[in-house]
Amino acid sequence: MLHLRRLLRAPLLLLAFLWVVLEETIWHWAGLLGAQIARLPVFAGLERLVLRLDPWVVLLLFLVPLLGLIPLKFAAVWLIGGGHPIKGVVLLVAAKFLGTAISAHLYNVAEPKLMQIAVFARVRNFVFGLLARAHAYLDASPSWRAARRAMRRMKMLARAFAARARALVFGNGPGLIDRVRAVRAQWKRRA
Asked: How many percent of the chain have pLDDT more than 90?
């Protein structure tokens, strides 16, 4: 049994590492996109509706993004099969990302309602407990901490490179938005 545990440890650590990286990056960006989508009037109405509905009906609402993506998935397969694999994969990834964004925002709004369903609450608490244990295990790992430091360094280098590139292209003066604001302020003063 100990030999099997040692044998499975490295692949499981890799899987946990990939899961946490995906969770932290994709879920973060999907949450930001979901917040932008939520500004649309249709979704504001949906949020009010979710707060009035029965918890089981709210749970069924999660099928809407999944079912809405089926035509896009068929279109992606059609593109891939038709000799346009890059377009098909891009469409598939974009559709998946959009569906995740909508589901993430819907979950944030609907979680209090969903927690009224005992089965959902137990499953959610079990999954979140597993994720918390995986995070704690990875956070204690020296290789994970080294990987996090390397990622922070790469982000800082990428930001510095982007700032230098922006300065080369647009100069060190005020940006376009600052210039537009200055012109608007001058117009308001003259009027």
From this structure: 5
